[in-house]
Amino acid sequence: MPSKVCHRGIQRFLQLKAPHVENFELVNDEGKTPQQLLNEAKVLVIGAGGLGCEILKNLAMSGFKDIHVIDMDTIDISNLNRQFLFRKADVGKPKAEVAAEFIRRRSPDVNITAHFKRIQEMSEEFYLGFTLIVCGLDSIEARRWINAFVCGLVETHGFEGFKPIVDGGTEGFKGNARLILPTHSACFECGLSMFSPKTTYPICTIANTPRLPEHCIEWASVLEWPRVFPDKKLDGDNPDHINWLVEQATQRAAPFNITGITYSLTQGVVKNIIPAIASTNAIIAAACTNEAFKIVTSSNPFLDNYLFYSGDEGIHSYTFPYEKDPNCLVCGNRQGAVTMSGDATLEELIDELKTNLAFQLKAPTLTVDSTNLYFQNPKELEELTRPNLEKKLSDLFSSESTLTVTDTTLPTSLQVTVTFS
Amino acid sequence: MLKIWNQKKSEVEAQRLKPKGSPSRIRLQKDLGELVPSADTDIQFPNPADQTTFTVVYRPPTGFYAGGEFRFTFEVSENFPHEPPKVLCTQTIYHPNIDTEGHVCLNVLREDWKPVLNIQSVIFGLQMLFLEPNPEDPLNKDAAKLMIDDRQRFGRMVAETMCGLSRNNVAYTNVLDMKNPANKGRTHRNAHYY
Amino acid sequence: MRPETDKSQLYDRQLRLWHESGQTALENAHVCVFGSSALASESLKNLVLPGIGRFTVIDDATVDDQDVLTNFFVRHDDAGKPRAECIVAGLGELNPDARGVAVVRAPADVLGSCEASDTDLVSSASLVMACGLPDALVHDLGLRCWQLGTPLIVASAAGFMASIRTTVPEHAVVESHAEMKQDLRLTAPFPALLSHVDNIDLGTLDPTDLGHVPFAVIIVKALQKWAAANGLVLGKDTIEIPYRRIGEVRDIIRAMAPASDEENFVEAGNNLNANCSAYEIAFEVSQIISDADASETPTSGSSSDDADLQVSPSTPLPCDNGSKDKFWLMAKALRRFTESEYSNGKLPLSGTIPDMKADTKGYIALQRVYKQKADEDKAEFSKHIHDVLDAAGLPQDYVSQAEIDTYCKNARRLRLLRFTPIHTELKSKPSNIDELAFSEALFHYVMFRSSAMFFEKHRRYPGVPDGDKNVDLDDLVAADAAELETVGNGLLVSWGIADQTVPNGLAAEFARSGHDELHNIASLSGGVIAQEAIKLITHQYVPANNMCIVDGAASKIHVARV
User: Where is the THIF-type NAD/FAD binding fold domain (chain C) (predicted)?
Assistant: First the structure.
């Protein structure tokens, strides 16, 4: 078995002066060489799909030695046109495990660990153990979650919790790669408005004035399915379910002279399928891994902070710094601190937040660790939380707790730490 | 990595607190805390510790539906406000824009949802549906047609179904707000007087 | 209605992009690759997965310990084996439908051979790729492919940098999938559309029906009023509303609306900007039509067998194989169509309309008006294509109905790309100096050219120690970088770009790489190469014309024409 060696080409970049890196050092502040940093870096790959398979291969072939991969999905036949670590015989097996096993066989000197889990199931300690995170996810919800979580790690753990995220996404011939340095640069949530929500059609159009085959398919899936099968969840991967929808939608369409309902379109509408091809994944995954390599080894400057690629009509690519959103729900929250007696009441704290010139809130609503402290509205919550106003702060939370405060004067929230004097 | 970190250390130190809760929860807290109080609208939480599921109860003060009490469940996902809340009417009612399964045809709930909109916008949209039903983009086509063709008969039909009568093989829910003094003695037998 | 075949499931995510026709083209294609490094195998991976029919890898390299570390498709126990065979075996596992062959011979040997079995490797290929070949071989291969009219992608990588160059005399695209505004023709309505609109009397509609009139009808009504107020007749005169006067039409629409927030009228207002200009054939398409004109005059027999053929890039071949190429046969028919009295200078109507806020009946009726007109146009176009086929002595079924349908539907987004040859470029200088001089890719291109020249001179790439000589690598890189920079600046001067010099550090970055491939950059480039190859093979979407530079150091990707 080969020892921990790197490809000659990689070694050159770890050992030779980097003309484009300011103050390039062969030994960094922590006394480590780029080779050591690469050997010791522990990378978490989120998603073992189209991007994930590529990212795992690229990391292993770039000299990374400690790689973890997490994915809750199992392999589907439609993955095989791009997820090249899987074979037909693997259909139904966990993606993370099959991908890890493939890399393990190909590169025995790489330590690779698979987690057939949801990202939300893993502990804070788990995430704190990594040097950086590379995301190849197609779900916006999952990307929002990991972004908020990892940005939060910085707040609680400082440098120890600083985990750069390299995030990739593709659609057809287009894709993007971005580097998120939590609290330093724009985070995923800052750019959320770039993603248009899933195409939906007015429900009255679906019900009464269908014009497109999609309207008939939505009629079948949104209105008919729950009516006919009130207790059965529609499964976009179940051919029997899709066939039922195709039949219903076709019957629906006929009297209106609407044509074009196919199995493929139906499944596409129901599952909101986005076209995906191997080549685009290769571009974006390699762009992501390249950033992971550069940020760990300092062998070249890293991406600032967004790379866009489109191959539809010729090739168009832009690299630009995406701006932080001051109203971002993740990194745009204001921070503050208040020192009060633990014997003070919640009402006194609220008065403080209203009158203190640093805050000047109008009608703050407060929670702590998702526990309701006081809600200004709606009435039921206000009545329920009103008794807290009389209570001592020390009876409601401990000193140094961070409260989430919302108010009409704040674009997002105020995170206020209350210390008992 | 330390070098990258140090580049902006001072900036980071100025804001070192971790936001509690997910972005969707922070946003929901903001939306709820800033709701405009209204005497004819209640918001009920089956589990007050969990604000992601609640019921909006609306009692239209005027119009065809005055005297009724209409209930909608709201489900707010982790993807809020990227995605709108899911809203269903829990009662079987006769309304041009709400079908008997409880689906609501309201643009801000589907095609016109934008993350800048909030829970208040949705509640406002629901209130408008009862004050001014829109028969031109109907979900319940028969109701819409009747409303256009014969507003009086439509009004009678609404009043009857609100009392829980069955019409055209549909068993409607009695939605009368019995706390409303105007409804005293109101039953399906005298529904047409309303 | 079943989930169709296994294949449609397997390829579902890509069929949504290039459909059955593109998939068939891929499955019938043969890709011939010179070289077997990571660049070659990573490119092929992205072609084997979507189901390329056949691929041939030509290389005599044997696997060494470095290959194992950079080429994912060779294995530890492959050391010493022919690399071409190893990657063909590795790639073959990805998709049993793609048949791979390894030719374990030196590329120079195959290119220099006159044996039919060797020349067939290139002449039978739908697309040829050259990965990391020296300039001399790229020249020969470039000339060969140019004469055959076969697309060639030349790629090389050096550390964080890669260059991808496409060359083919011409590449025609029917299904370009180009994003274009709708083909509604509201300023130049055809008679059936006009009478459809005239049969709708907004004055007699009740508010509900008025709220369900499709926006196209509303705009035509408004344009009629606007035209009348300006002494014109819609449908007869050319209507072109200048941008600053669109507000006048907007006001007409507003006055017609029963309420200011009536959704379909709002939609009409929102769609005004896209529907107020006069009918116009896109520049790219009118160019194709005029080129088809040139091809009507019979050209003296194609001289593609003439090995000494010198193609001047400034006068590209008007149309390759003009007599038999379906694209050009149809382009000729298209020219006749647009010149006919029937079409009055317009292309066949595409026949698809966007969704509009409307009731089902009103929308479907309008859809039918467009569909019928499109069918009529197609029938008229078919007459012309039949004449063209007759004139060329070709059978009527030479072009299928499906091909005619696709051509008519996409007539307004046809694309024709003409590339520059690489063999002339290597012998002299880039064909598009003026354009290149302003490109961010200029210096990377210069560095790749300079590295090749350095190699020709020293028989080693910059930064690579000569044999076992015990030199300090940092010193060697510095010295080679200096030489590379000098060569590069010399090239710039010789091309007449005297006011620019190679930026600081770029030569050092190239020399630092030792011209080694990094897996990651090979993989990124392999993605770009495969995208371009798929576009060239399927004749769908639009390939980049003609060079792409990957700069992994700066995290940038540049495109330029050389």
Answer: 11-558
pLDDT in tens, A20-55: 887 667 777 778 899 999 999 999 999 999 999 999
| Res. A111: pLDDT tops 50 | yes
Question: Average pLDDT in the B28-50 region?
Answer: 93
pLDDT for A332 equals 84
Q: Name the 3-class secondary structure at C278.
A: coil
Distance from CA of C389 to the nearest CA of A (A): 31
Rounded mean pLDDT, B106-125: 93
Query: Beta strand pairing status for A165-171 and A132-136?
Result: parallel
CA distance B19 to A414: 8
Which residues on C lie below 8 Å from A282 (Cβ)? 42, 45-46, 523-524, 526-527, 530
| A40, A42, A204: best to mutate for the B interface, most B CBs within 10 A | A204
What distance in Å separates the CA atoms of residue C151 and residue C169, rounded to the nearest whole number?
8
Residues of chain C with pLDDT under 50: 1-3, 297-323
Q: Are strands B86-89 and B166-167 parallel, antiparallel or unpaired?
A: unpaired
List CB contacts of C525: < 8 A, sequence separation 6 or more. Answer: C39, C42, C43, C155, C157, C162, C164, C550
Structure tokens at A44: 């978490």
pLDDT at C5: 63
| Interface membership of C207 toward B (CB under 8 Å) | yes
Taking CB atoms and an 8 Å limit, are C527 and A10 in contact across chains? Answer: no
As a whole number of angstroms, the distance between CA A151 and CA A163 comes to: 8
Query: Cα(C155)–Cα(C425) distance, rounded to whole angstroms?
Result: 15
Nearest CA-CA distance, residue A333 and chain C, Å: 30
Between positions 29 and 48 of C, the ones with CB within 8 A of A are 42, 45-46
Q: Is the predicted pLDDT of residue B38 greater than 80, yes or no? A: yes
**A290/C360 CB distance under 8 A:** no
Q: At what angle do helices C191-198 and C215-229 cross, to 10 degrees?
A: 100
**A206-258 pLDDT, tens per residue?**
998 999 999 999 999 999 999 999 989 999 989 999 999 999 999 999 999 99
**Which residues on A lie below 8 Å from B139 (Cβ)?**
203-204, 207-208
Strand order in the sheet with B70-75: B41-44, B53-58, B70-75, B86-89
- CB contact under 8 Å between B18 and A371, yes or no, is no
Q: With bands split at pLDDT 50, 70 and 90, how would you rate the model's confidence at A357?
A: confident
**Which tokens go with B63?**
């119009």
Nearest CA-CA partner of C555 in A90, B25, A288, B79: A288
Which ipTM value was assigned to this complex? Answer: 0.94
**CA–CA–CA angle C508, C511, C515 (5° rounding):** 145
Q: Which is more confident, C311 or A388?
A: A388
Q: What is the mean pLDDT of residues A145-150?
A: 92
In this complex, the residue of A148, A202, A407 whose CB is nearest that of residue B22 is: A148
C472 to chain A, any CB pair closer than 8 A? The answer is no
- Whether residue C313 contacts residue C420, with contact meaning beta carbons closer than 8 Å, is answered with yes
Whole-number Å distance between alpha carbons of C351 and C330: 19
Q: How far is residue A342 from each of residues A352, A355, A405, measured CA to CA in Å?
A: 14, 19, 18
What pLDDT score does C304 carry?
A: 41
What gap in Å lies between CA C527 and CA A280, rounded to an integer?
6
CA–CA separation, A315 and A311 (whole Å): 5
Alpha helices by DSSP H, listed for C49-163, are: 65-70, 83-92, 107-112, 116-123, 135-148
Per-residue pLDDT tens for A326-343?
888 888 888 889 999 999
Chain mean pLDDT for chain A: 93
The DSSP bridge pattern shows strands C30-34 and B170-171 to be unpaired
